[in-house]
Amino acid sequence: MTPILILLLGIIIVVGLIVGLRINAFVALIAAAIVISILSPGEWSTKITRVATAFGTTAGSIGIVIAMAAVIGVTMMNSGAADRVVQAFIRLLGQERGSPALAASGFMLSIPVFFDTVFYLLIPLARSLFTQTKRSYLKYVIAIAAGAAATHALVPPTPGPLIIAENLNVDLGTMILVGITVALPAAILGLMYAGWLNRRMTVPMRDVPGVDAEATVLDTLPGLGFSVLPIVLPIILIAGKTVFLPLLDNDTILARWIIVLGDPNMALLLAAAVSTAVYIQMRRPSRENLGKLIEQSLMSGGLIILITAAGGTFGAMLKEAQIGPAISDLFAGTSGTSGLGMLVLGFGIASLLKFAQGSSTVAMITASAMLAAMITPEQDLGFNVVYLGTAIGAGSLVGSWMNDSGFWIYSKMSGLTEVETLKSWSALLIILGISAGLMSVILSLLIPLT
Fold it and tell me: Of the four, 35, 92, 363, 439, which is 20 to 30 A from 150 by CA?
């Protein structure tokens, strides 16, 4: 079987199992990886063992980072640190600028915390602001989604961008810095769309079971510095290594410490330790309750690790199938798989996968695996491959409809109808995705980072 047919069969298996049979993404990706491995060249004695080896390699690369990000998210929520961050933005910008405050809160919190958790946290604040101002409920809701969705798809250590960096062999610090640079203007455009749509579509604040009209705030909250430290510490350490290490002699003591502390595993471990310490200081839990909370966070992160590692395995087996040379031969004599063409291809594949099966994370995992297999060592894109990563993340935002769990979280938690959700949420993600994709193209031309 030709590599192109193997690729198409792999995609059919992934999408078919997830959409048609409602099979978990981990099982779908591993099943596709095994089929691709069997159909690819190689000794029969290694066709299954190389799947397990690739899975272990990917899990070893991203497992600690995702697990610690899950711990950070849960402990920040329970310590009140997340509430403190939101309060700081509202006090800084004022209640009359509630939508920018909510967007900024979502933008920052969604870097270490999963999107659905951030939305659960912030939607009561949107309802509380509406209760006080009696206006702009839809604008508040869209603002939360704009900020949180942008960083969810573009900035590690969120699992999608993390596996993009892993699959494409992008330095994580570079992915963080470029991801934030691409996500920020997209979120601002999303906020502008919130104001535009709010003036043209009136949406009342409806009662939602389990969601109060007033935000519930813990009695005591940690200081702002300690609240934001678990978010900014890993960004500073990882990005600092990317920026400063090339300027230093690796044999110096400073360089050695930068190498150790800037390692993503160490940076996230330190951030998780800080977040846990803040939780212990503020809530004084018993050892049993502390253990249960950490176990709960690790269990939630465990499934994400399995899915993400399975995606890395899928990509490794595509490389074994010689997808890269096959694509190069397919476009021989053209520029279809270099430069701008690769950005468009990455964006388009991620969008199609998002529309087909609903999950942005699965779309990012699968698309980055496919593109990584297509890039040959001698290929010169003309820019840093990080821009291909952000283009894939941008594409994974486009195409959200009723098969996306985020669609229903947004709809049910905010009390919007399906039609209102399509006009606000689905349209917003198209704007976020296209603007982030265009930003990736512009930056690749102006600042190629080669």
Answer: 92
